[in-house]
Amino acid sequence: MSLIIAKFSLKGQIISRKDLLLTSLILACKLKSAMLLPFQFKPKVVRPHEKRIVLENFISLSTLQGLSYILPIIVLPYLIRVIGADKFGLIAFAQAFVQYFMIITDYGFGISATKKIALCKDDTGKMNTIFSSVMSAKFILTILSFIFFLIIVTSVPKFRNDWWVYILSFGAVTGNTLFPVWFFQGREKMAYIASVNIIGGIFYAIGIFVFVKSPHDYLYVPAFNSIFSLSVGLYALHIAFKKFGLEFIDQGYRDIQRELKTGWNIFISNVAINAYTTTRVFAVGLLTNNTITGYYSIAERIAGFTQSFPLGSLSQAFYPRINKIFNQSKKRALRIMQRMQHSTIITSLISLSIIFAITPLIVKFVTGKYCPESIIVLRLLIISILFVSANTFRVQFLLVYGRFDIYAKLHITAALIGTPLIFILVSYYSYLGAALSTTIIEAGVFIATFWIIKRIVKS
Question: Which of 44, 176, 240, 388 has the lowest tally of Cβ within 10 angstroms?
């Protein structure tokens, strides 16, 4: 009580009873506000128009990702029953091999060019320069890749024996080069990506059901996949030129070199990431047989759908917007990233637990029979997806923050450890080794990224 009176005394004069009462009420209100502060809602970090743009793009990409995986999953049971696990395994192995060349032609443009397009706003001249430089670089990389691809296919017996499967599969690489996904992402116009892919996917599914009637028709599968990819790529280019007023400008060596230099660290990271992702199917195909590869690939495709939809759609829709936010306020971008990551972890724990429990039903629906090989592989891959989900926005923030060097080192280290681990475990434990190594690698990447981001936040 003496402290209160001392607080409200002024040069030895005691404040009147009325003033003391008024001051006490003010203090009480302030004290109440202070006590309730932790329970009050924090100010909105994400603005309404940002939510709307990300949500629109998320819906578009989710529709695309959903149908791009749902259509093959609808086709998958039919293919396995008609062409058999052996031929399906051969096609899956060819697609895994071709994926390496897709990585080369993608380079690091999916991230570096997307960021550049996102930041150049409505400067058409700048967009034309970036677009032309990136596409020129991609065309050069595609030509070099095809030459190297032909040398391998014609000289290595394993590939030469089924050379038609590999040649027909390579069309997907060219189609992927033509499709400027990075441009639509940078402009935050993902609806175009979704609409084009949905139409192409439907025609692909119809082609499979109409033309694939026996094991002898297995070559139609890679052929239709390439035709679909090329058609979609050409139509997407048409949209980019027509809707956005793009013009292709001849680019000099220095312009192309600049884009290659910008995307180098990301390219190395992509090579490293695929060294321990795509290599799983490739290693199983090399060290086992087509049938086992087929069963393993079934589980991988279901897991791929689980990982990419809707998490992959959300991260892709979120990336160009978080770059713009980071350009305005680093602290706000960090807070948004943290909230997104926490929400993703909770959602993934619930959804992946349900999928883990009903794995036998999912596999039976796809394969038409009880398939223990695919069930156990899928369950191990679901555990690895949990680590990926808990890390998605942390890894993405490294790119937004401009730490491409750390991003590259992180995945190069994972590749140097993970790739030999895959081959060692597959040689000892067959298809189970591929799934087990995946879980170990993703857990390691999660732990490393967690500590890296923690250090960045402190600094």
Answer: 44
Rounded Cα distance, 406 and 333, in Å: 19
Element (H, E) at 10: strand 9-10
Tens of pLDDT along 43-84? 455 555 555 555 555 555 555 555 655 666 678 888 888 998
Q: What's the token pair of residue 403?
A: 């730490």
Locate 407 and state its tokens.
């991003």
| Res 423: pLDDT | 93
Angle between helices 264-275 and 278-287 (to 10 degrees): 40
The position carrying tokens 């690489």 is 173
User: What are phi and psi for residue 13, nearest 5 degrees?
Assistant: -100, 135
What's the CA gap between 81 and 79, in Å, rounded?
5
**426 closest CA partner among 272, 274, 292:** 292
Domain ranges, ordered by start, for the chain: 48-458
Phi, psi (5° rounding) for residue 108?
A: -115, 15
Judged by DSSP in three states, 416 sits in helix
Cα separation, 188 vs 56, in Å, equals 9
Q: For residue 34, what pLDDT band results from cuts at 50, 70 and 90?
A: very low
Alpha helix segments (H runs only) across 313-429: 313-328, 330-357, 359-367, 372-389, 392-400, 404-429
Contacts of 237 (CB under 8 A, 6+ apart): 178, 179, 180
Beta bridge partners of 9: 14
Q: What is the per-residue pLDDT across 223-282, written as a single tens digit (0 to 9) for each? A: 999 998 999 899 989 988 988 888 888 888 888 888 888 888 788 878 887 777 778 888
Element housing 219 (H / E): none
On average, the pLDDT of the chain sits at 80
Place of tokens 């069309």: 171
